[in-house]
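Lab manual, section 2.4: Encoding a predicted structure.

Procedure: take the sequence of the chain (66 residues), apply the prediction step described in section 2.3, and record the output as structure tokens. A sample record is shown.
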Amino acid sequence: MPKMKTHKGAKKRFVVSATGKVKHKHAGTGHLAWRKTTKQRRQLRGSSSLNSADARRIVLALSPGK
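Recorded output:
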């Protein structure tokens, strides 16, 4: 059987913390941010964690051997 591969798109966008939470960057900050208010841009800074239902899918995409 062929080996399972890590999903490269997920690898670039998510990181799994030591406690098992999946951290990600907020959407909507890449470009065209000038049309958002200063409050919106400020609140999109930093990272947040996914809920458990979505986190399970991402962990499976990141772990090639499981």
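Check your result against the sample. The first strand starts at residue 14 and ends at 16.
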